[in-house]
Specification:
By secondary structure, the chain is mainly β. It is 0% helix and 60% strand. Strands 2, 4, 5, 6, 9, 10 and 11 form a seven-stranded mixed sheet that branches. It has a four-stranded antiparallel sheet with strand order 1-3-8-7, with no helix packed on it.
Length: 128
């Protein structure tokens, strides 16, 4: 059973920064793909960033690619999302997810990924 636990959310002023963490447990993650998603009130869940755990290749949604950085620490089984220059429109619940044989299909850089394991989410609120 895969478990994902996010932390690091909070309230920040526009232009500020936050770092989200996602600790993964339950299997060896070195061959998998991890993603960060977000869901704002009244909107669909949106892919934000992803990282291939094995080679560290990263992928970003266009509106965040110059402000957010996804990274991983293999020794700690942890994925991070460094968010800089935050804007009010970044306000959302942020989730980390791991690919698995069954789950939600998401196209990332032209490749369909299946995300079947999700964390509980962490709230990020950016005030103007």
């Amino acid at each position: 059973q895969v478990q994902l636990v996010e932390s690091g959310g909070g309230l920040v002023q526009a232009g500020g920064s936050l770092r989200l963490s996602c600790v993964a447990s339950g299997r060896t993650f070195s061959r998998y793909f991890m993603g960060w998603f977000r869901q704002a009130p009244g909107k669909e869940r949106q892919f934000v960033a992803g990282i291939n755990w094995s080679d560290g290749s990263t992928y970003y949604e266009d509106t965040v690619k110059d402000r957010f950085t996804i990274s991983r620490d293999n020794a700690k089984n942890t994925v991070y999302l460094q968010m800089n220059s935050l804007k009010p429109e970044d306000t959302a619940v942020y989730y980390c997810a791991c690919d698995s044989p069954r789950g939600e299909a998401v196209v990332v850089a032209g490749v369909t990924r299946i995300f079947g394991s999700w964390g509980q989410g962490t709230q990020v609120t950016v005030s103007s």
